[in-house]
Design goal:
It contains five helices and six strands, in the order E-H-H-E-E-E-H-E-H-E-H. By secondary structure, the protein is an alpha/beta fold. A hairpin with a 2-residue loop joins strand 2 and strand 3. It is globular and about 45 Å long.
Length: 156
């Protein structure tokens, strides 16, 4: 881990893959769907738009999509080294495509997101992403994210 203003001691992070039936996969799906519902990737700022889907419907539909795409994706969990069942965050990728990166709010600012992004082995400055949220751009202002939601459905 790199030192940050909240992580001067360089707190260690255990990076690992989830087991197929692990409880952590439920956390991944739940947090990912709730974030997409709270920060939809579509711009509703224009005066002529349809209202966004209700959150319960968006969560249900996105959960269905995610269960299909994570089968062929790589998920890396960031965990407490002293307790590997305590998940602080995760990154989900498919080759050079970043699907999603998430860190629990209490653990943001400690460098965990950067650790996950580096562990994903994605290009340094131009990263193709299938999901975009305001939080993504705030967390990584130095990265140029290229949004391509179709790659989520059709792959490369």
């Amino acid at each position: 881990m790199y030192p940050t203003h909240r992580n001067v001691e360089r707190i260690g992070v255990l990076l690992r893959k989830p087991e197929p039936d692990e409880r952590a996969l439920g956390f991944v799906l739940d947090s990912w769907c709730k974030t997409v519902a709270a920060e939809p990737p579509w711009d509703f700022a224009t005066p002529h738009h349809t209202p966004p889907l209700p959150h319960p419907l968006m969560i249900y539909e996105h959960d269905t999509i995610l269960k299909k795409i994570i089968r062929n994706s790589t998920i890396t969990l960031a965990c407490d080294p002293a307790d590997p069942d305590t998940v602080w965050g995760y990154v989900c990728t498919d080759g050079d495509l970043l699907h999603f990166i998430y860190v629990k709010s209490a653990f943001r600012g400690f460098g965990i997101g950067g650790c996950l992004l580096r562990a994903a082995g994605l290009p340094g400055s131009n990263v193709i992403t299938s999901h975009r949220t305001e939080s993504l751009f705030k967390a990584f202002p130095e990265v140029r994210f290229l949004w391509n939601p179709y790659r989520m459905i059709y792959g490369t």
